[in-house]
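ARCHIVE CARD
Drawer: 12
Card no.: 0347
Subject: one protein chain, sequence and derived structure
Cross-reference: see card 0346
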Amino acid sequence: FTEDKETNTANVEYGNDPDHLTQGTPDTVIVRTHKLTITKTDGNTQEKLAGAEFNLFKGNNTIGT
């Protein structure tokens, strides 16, 4: 499989007065993406199902089609 890395930086400002916010400490994380190949097959014959479509879920959130 291939592994691509990107970075993502976030900084949170917080406080009760929008004109006087406290600066948080910036944080940088590495975001990794992976190639995923899925083949849909018939459960009995193991033959590939032409034109098969499905959704991939993590918890209640759709993360791909």
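Annotation on reverse: Residues 3-52 form one domain. The CA atoms of residues 34 and 41 lie 22 Å apart.
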